[in-house]
Amino acid sequence: MVGGFRWAAMFPDEVWEHVFSFLPADADRNAAALVCRAWYRIERRSRWRVFVGNCYAVEPAAAVRRFPEVRAAAIKGKPHFADFNLVPSDWGGGAEAWVEAMVEGWPHLEELRLKRMVVSDDCLELIARCFKNFKVLSLVSCEGFSTAGLAAIAANCRNLRELDLHENEVEDNCLHWMSHFPESFASLVTLNIACLEERLVGLLHRVPQLVDLGTGKFAAQHHPELFSKLESAIAGCKNLKSLSGFWEAGPTYLPAIYSVCEGLTSLNLSYATIQGPELIKLISWCKNLQRLWVMDLIEDDGLIAVAASCKLLQELRVFPSDPYGAAQPISLTEHGLVAISAGCPMLHSVLYFCRQMTNAALLTVAKNCPNFTCFRLCIMEPHTPDYITRQPLDAGFSAIVESCKHLRRLSLSGLLTDLVFKSIGASANCLEMLSVAFAGDGDAGLHYILSGCKNLRKLEIRDCPFGDKPLLDNAAKLETMRSLWMSSCSVTLGACRQLARKMPLLNVEVINERKRGLPLELQPDNCPVEKLYIYRTVAGPRSDTPSCVWILR
Amino acid sequence: MSPPLEHDYIGLSELPFSAAAAAGAAEDGALNLKETELRLGLPGSESPDRKEKVGLTLGLLPKVFGSGAKRGFSDAIDGAGKWELTSGGCGSEVEGGKGGALFSPRGEDGGGQLSGHGNAGKDVAPKADGQERKAAGQVGNSAGNDRGVAPAAKAQVVGWPPIRSYRKNTMATNPSKDKEDADEKQGPGCLYVKVSMDGAPYLRKVDLKAYNNYKELSSALEKMFSCFTIGQCGSHGIPGRDGLSESRLTDLLNGSEYVLTYEDKDGDWMLVGDVPWEMFTNSCKRMRIMKGSDAIGLAPRAMEKCKNRIRISF
């Protein structure tokens, strides 16, 4: 403090609170809290939204104590690669500790969003019972609960506004959990669940104000009566902006949604095995679409149609319909991606699974879309080069990072050498998350990333020839990041031990699923580490590690 | 450095020599599963050990045919040009002749080899220097393969392409329009199929790998759907084997009880219990608990399929 001047005394606390409420990001509030004790006190008492990117980075009780007025919390658990079965199922990410602390310290909590966590029915029942004004529950990619837990939520949370349950492993043991919703559910605006179409009609009639609907199965024997019931029920939802689900959708029932297509801003058809022509027909109605998730059955032709119809498109995800099959004649190639990049000026987020790519196409995409914030390309066969020139795809991805100055998330694929990492390290100044697989030549690749990319938060790497040296040389960088995952690389136990000794604010987790051999403490330094997860934390080593995880100190 | 172990499928016509030798060992004609189990490899080579329940089981028509297994094999070749799965079967007779659906080795084998499950192949794997790891992974769809030649094994790497398990499971039970695409691919360790029940408002999904036999499966299903009336869709059985008892089936169908049916890879709806458990889990795409009265049209066909096999073997 300058000469003892007390900034805080300039105005009453309420004024500072009001000022802080304009700070857009938590990082800004964090900075304000460091100015002086008074600001720290005022800021912490007025923060009502908290995001915990790694549930093990801080003790739940400490978080609750620091910010006693929180109304909305979001917490993430397992590393991203858990989505692809790379993380043992008992690794952790349990929600109990957090829910118990929140029930204790945040009785006025209204909103809870959990991702990749293990949530038990007990947790759901606690939430349902203890948070009197609970409005929003979002569970994404979670597991450990059943429909009995959901019944508790439906029955007790009278003010529920948003129930978002997508991509969870839910045990279905309570057949009628949805009937626990009150008869007239005026507050519900988001309902994202799986249910059969007969019940869907009934449900839609009870929640005509729905903004966001996720269906489940969207196919049945053709019953004209059911069709028209469904059509009118959906048409009755005048506020519908977002549709998803559509498992097993057939052409029979799809026209039931035509009436709401023009109002849709978000459409998720990524589970629907609808062929190109039907897709084109449907999407041509959706002139205001901002987000489209679809299967590669849409093919290049379909994407060309999207590029012509959906001028407001911001986010596109194209998923593979047959990821493991022999090369099927699905005509989805780099041309579709180029067409979209040319036709949709507002496009900023892409996830694209395909089987072939060229540097030229990527250069064109980079030129067309300098505003990308998220670019994830997955060429399904590892090490695939440019199929025309047979060169690595370094030039293409380099063009992307050099052109897209606001790129925050990038996933690489195809044949790549250390050169691409040099470009990324040098140019990707806004990059926060990088996913790398089957790429690079050696240690230099990882060193370029860790010594560059000044905003990097999450780095996940699999099957790359990166070893100990770049890790140890850039140990300090790891404390500026949320987490690092490395699997099937060339890291040794000795380097991990060194890193753990050098960096007390990191948890260095070595994951070894093999039951044979010596326990890890007795293994020599040159023992290869199969899976490594490093994250910064102020909570110290966690106490719930399973037998396959060692935290090195 | 020696290249990683490679196990390619080879043209079927090359198989029989080792297969014949294997089958020939079953002297007494009684079908011994182990004896007729074929392991893949080039003729004359030793194929690596696999876990019992994972992997392929091909049985050759045994000597009951006549002058030895070789003749049986050439009959099979001349017939549909396809291999027939013959392990176990209706009673003690052997299925033969009719072109059967080909197999798909379990994802667990292909995937498991490369994950941290303590498998031998894994020691070779982690040198990520651009070498592609090959394991006896999945066979592509070969049901429609006229020449009867299985395509080369495709390497399957754990967690690649990066698709969420949730999506994989949902897609696995989502029938694709393309018939060629008949092989569901499952992640290592699970095999989810949908189970619907006539009159029930919900579909359920079950992991077939969680059960070892029909009894376990049917009691699990009974528990799941217990709020609806279920007849004895549990253990069908030829005395002593997992198979279908004709008289038992008629009893079931006379009442209005429910029966458990499944759609197999050919798209046919069959009664559960018809074929050996392994074969069932390899070919089941989804299940449906039907009212007994609806299944009447189904049963004779299932029995017919079985009868045909019995007939042809002699």
TrEMBL record, chain A:
GO-annotated biological processes: auxin-activated signaling pathway
UniProt superkingdom: Eukaryota
InterPro entries the record matches: COI1_F-box, F-box-like_dom_sf, F-box_dom, Leu-rich_rpt_Cys-con_subtyp, LRR_dom_sf, Transp_inhibit
Domain F-box: 11-52
Tagged with keyword Endoplasmic reticulum: no
UniProt keywords, alphabetically: Auxin signaling pathway
Keyword Aminoacyl-tRNA synthetase (UniProt): no
Classification via PANTHER family: F-BOX/TPR REPEAT PROTEIN POF3, PROTEIN TRANSPORT INHIBITOR RESPONSE 1
Protein name as catalogued: F-box domain-containing protein
Organism name: Musa acuminata subsp. malaccensis (Wild banana)
Automatic annotation (TrEMBL), chain B:
Transcription regulation keyword on record: yes
Subcellular localization: Nucleus
Domain of life: Eukaryota
Residue spans of biased composition, Basic and acidic residues class: 124-135, 176-186
UniProt cross-references to InterPro entries, sorted A to Z: AUX/IAA_dom (IPR033389), AUX_IAA (IPR003311), PB1-like (IPR053793)
Record-linked PROSITE patterns: PB1 (PS51745)
Record's keyword terms, sorted: Auxin signaling pathway, Nucleus, Repressor, Transcription, Transcription regulation
Functional summary from the UniProt entry: Aux/IAA proteins are short-lived transcriptional factors that function as repressors of early auxin response genes at low auxin concentrations.
Subunit structure: Homodimers and heterodimers.
Name this protein carries in UniProt: Auxin-responsive protein
Taxonomic path: Eukaryota, Viridiplantae, Streptophyta, Embryophyta, Tracheophyta
